[in-house]
Automatic annotation (TrEMBL):
This is Germin-like protein. Its main location: secreted. Mn(2+) binds at H98, H100, E105, H144. It comes from Dioscorea zingiberensis. The keyword Phosphoprotein does not apply.
C-alpha cells in the first residue's frame, strides 16, 4: 500500500483541471464564469495583473476612479472566488452609495484617509475615517460608500469574495436611467424640481 501511494505521488499530473481555470475571454461568460483556457496556451502572465501601478482618472463628477481586476481584466481569478480593485479618490472625491450583489468587500487604505461606511439591513450605520494601513469589511449586498477624508489624493486596494462582484450605484440607478420622474418622486419623497435637477446632472430621462 505504501509503495502504491508513493507511486501516485511521483506520477506527473496530466491536468490542471482541479487547480485553476484561467478564463478564456474569447468565449461567452456563463453563470459559473468563463470557460477554461486550454492548458497549452497558459503562461505565467495569466496569473499576474499590473493595472494598479497608475492612478485612475479622477476627472469626473465624483472625483474618483475604480480600476478593477475582475475576471474580464484579470482572467487568472476566473473561478477562484476572489478579485480586487484600486480605488483613487481625489480631494472631495466620493464613491456614492452602492452595493455589490455578488460579493463582500475588504478595503485597505494605502495612502491618505478615507471616510467609509455601510448600512445594515436594519438601517444601522457603521462608518469611520480610515487611515493608511486600516482595513474595513463591507458585507455582501449592503449599501456602502467611501469619501476622501483628508483633502489629498487618497488610495485604497479592495478585494472581493467573487471574481465578478457586480455593482449597482443607487444614485445612478435612480437618476441616470429612464425610471419616470413621478415614480422616483413617490419612492424617494423628493419633489419634481429636485428629481429633474438630478436627472439633468446625471443624464437621466423620463
Amino acid at each position: 500500500m505504501l509503495s502504491f501511494l508513493l507511486l501516485l505521488f511521483l506520477l506527473p499530473s496530466s491536468s490542471n483541471a482541479l487547480d485553476f481555470c484561467v478564463g478564456e475571454l474569447t468565449l461567452p461568460e456563463t453563470p459559473a464564469g468563463y470557460p477554461c483556457k486550454p492548458p497549452a496556451k497558459l503562461t505565467v502572465d495569466d496569473f499576474i495583473f499590473t493595472g494598479f501601478k497608475k492612478a485612475g482618472n479622477t476627472s469626473n463628477i465624483i472625483s474618483a476612479a475604480v480600476s478593477p481586476a475582475f475576471t474580464a481584466q484579470f482572467p487568472g481569478v476566473n473561478g477562484l472566488g476572489i478579485s480586487a480593485a484600486r480605488l483613487d479618490l481625489a480631494p472631495n472625491g466620493v464613491i456614492p452609495l452602492h452595493t455589490h450583489p455578488a460579493a463582500s468587500e475588504l478595503l485597505i487604505v494605502t495612502q491618505g484617509a478615507i471616510l467609509a461606511g455601510f448600512i445594515s439591513s436594519a438601517n444601522d450605520v457603521y462608518y469611520k475615517t480610515l487611515k493608511k494601513g486600516d482595513l474595513m469589511v463591507f458585507p455582501q449586498g449592503l449599501l456602502h460608500f467611501q469619501i476622501n477624508a483628508r483633502g489629498i489624493n487618497s488610495v485604497a486596494i479592495v478585494s472581493f469574495s467573487s471574481p465578478s462582484p457586480g455593482l449597482q450605484i443607487t444614485t445612478l440607478a435612480l437618476f441616470a436611467g429612464s425610471l419616470p420622474s413621478p415614480i422616483i418622486e413617490k419612492v424617494t419623497f423628493l419633489d419634481d424640481a429636485q428629481v429633474k435637477k438630478l436627472k439633468a446632472v446625471l443624464g437621466g430621462t423620463g
